[in-house]
Amino acid sequence: MQQLKTEVVIQIPETHVVIEKTQLEELKQQAEPEWVSGLSWLSEQTGIKSPQQLKEKLLYPFRKELEDFVYYPKNTGETWRFNTAYMKAWLRKSFVRVVK
Questions:
Q1: What is the pLDDT of residue 35?
Q2: Which of 14, 21, 61, 81 could hold 71 in an S-S bridge, CB 3.0 to 4.6 Å?
Q3: For residues 25-37, b (16+ Cβ closer than 10 Å) or e, as one string?
Q4: What's the confidence (pLDDT) of residue 52?
């Protein structure tokens, strides 16, 4: 069997770079404007306007799944806090279950 060895040169414009996919994903997560947000942010993400409905339809029913990246207030006056990157990923993955 014959083999042919060749060299290919690909020019990349100065306006572009080549990076690994994993590095791109890390950069996307770092580009989040805020990495921790509250109920108003979650309302914007889901379209559920009422804080009470957010709690009843999303936050309490899925609490075991969300506890690693959602702060559930323990006392009156404390605010809900969400790690936006993890919460967005969970919402994408769980969309069908959440909208039922």
A1: 80
A2: 81
A3: eeeeeeeeeeeeb
A4: 94
- Distance, in Å, from the CA atom of 94 to the CA atom of 31, rounded to the nearest integer, reads 23
| Distance (Å, whole) CA 99 – CA 45 | 13
Q: Which residues on adjacent β-strands are paired with residue 37? A: 82
Name, in order, each residue with C-beta under 8 angstroms of 61's C-beta and a sequence gap of 6 or more.
none
pLDDT of residue 87: 94
Which stretches in the chain have pLDDT values below 70? 32-33, 100
Total length of the chain: 100
List helix spans (H) across 1-100.
Answer: 21-30, 39-46, 51-54, 63-66, 84-99
Q: CB neighbours of 79 closer than 8 A, spacing ≥ 6?
A: 38, 39, 73
Residue tagged 């069997």 (tokens): 1
First to last CA, the chain: 60
